[in-house]
Amino acid sequence: MTIPVLESKEQSLSCPSILILDDRPENILIIEAMLSGLDVNLLEATSGPMALELLEEHSIAAALIDVSIPGVAGFDVAFQMRSRGEAVPIIFITPLDFSVQSTMRACSVGATDFVYAPVEPTVLRTKVQGFLDLFRLRQTEELRLRSLKELNDVLAANQAEAEKLASEVALQREDLERQNRELTVRNKQLDSFAHVVSHDLRQPLGSILDYIELIEDSWGEHLDANSLRWIKACIGLGDQMRMLIERILDFSRLGSRVPLMRPVDTSAVLAAALDSLHAAVKESGALIRCDVLPTVLGSEHLLTCLFQNLIDNAIKYRGPEPPRIQVRCGRCRDDKKMWCFRVIDNGRGFEEADRERVFEMFGRCDNVGDTPGTGIGLAMCKRIVEAHSGRIWAKSSPRRGAQFIFVLPDAFAEAGPAC
């Protein structure tokens, strides 16, 4: 928004002038001597045309006019000034025997005041000073009005611009809301599609595995080693497919159901997750350390799945050394009503460019090799955290481990150490 800078009086008020019209230069010198010391420009005119020309060139605060100028009467000059629309105050210098008729005529042509000859200096200075003060007040008011008009013009322009921007923002908001509605519908359709497809795949896959096992049980003793190996491979691949279908079903259910939120002890949730991973922890020699964990507002089942996926990932994608996993927690610095959790491992890590991709459906890093996995676990973690009004992100570099950081709402909003 642009605001005009108002000028100071010293910068913008012009120095006023007093016009002295008299055909005798000595009289003009006497009047100038009487007005000496006033902050004013004194303009001299010895004829009517000269006076009218000066009026066009200068800002006149008042005009001192001798009524008895040979060739052109002071009344005529005053009349021409008023005819041109000039609003300059006119002080007539008149003799003491100035008649009533002359006074009335002077008033009719625009006389503002009179000074009688011989002129008393104090009276003249007082009258002129009064008109100077009025002139400066008028100048100040005109300047103020001009500045207010400029300000009003700028404000009107800014208001018009603001209204235009508000209209554009409203249109963008409407478009964004429409896109969000469409995205919500598409996500629901996608979740429904995944659920239906996964559900429909589960039954024929189970039948295929049953028939393979039936062949193995019925004809196993008649089959050679290669045939038995092929059957084992089919069963293994079928089990992987069954696990993938179950994970897709779990993922689709997360999007279609609103979890029931209640206070959940995350220490107990972590213990349950570790209990389900007992075999993997023992087989890998993993060492897991954790802080004292808080109580959050959430779903016990979903949070168990969250920790289980993150710990399982840390074990599954370990490096050459046994897994060393830390689960740390503290208050979020920017929101004391949220807890910040960190699951830190010493595993393979991943490239900085993969920080977002690891949370995508079926997103896997290039360094996973032949490590089994569905590529759904971290996508489920993201959906679980977002269902709890939180957020999750990752930090990592190759061969230096990874950190998975997520925030969850506190069940009681009490103060604690910052994370």
Question: Can you describe what's shown?
Answer:
By secondary structure, the chain is of the alpha/beta class. 53% of the residues lie in helices and 16% in strands. The strands form 3 sheets. A 5-stranded parallel sheet has the order 2-1-3-4-5, sandwiched between helices. Helix 3 (48-57) packs parallel to helix 4, helix 6 packs antiparallel against helix 7 (225-256) and helix 7 packs parallel to helix 11.
Q: What value does the average pLDDT take?
A: 81
For the termini, the CA-CA separation is 41 Å
**Rg (CA only):** 48 Å
Count of helix runs? 11
β-strand number: 12
Spans where pLDDT lies below 50 across 5 or more residues: 1-12
Describe the global form.
rod-shaped
How does the helix and strand content classify structurally?
alpha/beta
Series of H and E elements: HEHEHEHEHEHHEHHEEHEEHEE
Strand order of the largest sheet: 2-1-3-4-5
Largest sheet entry: 5 strands, parallel
Beta-strand portion reads 15-25%
Q: Helix coverage percent of residues?
A: 40-55%
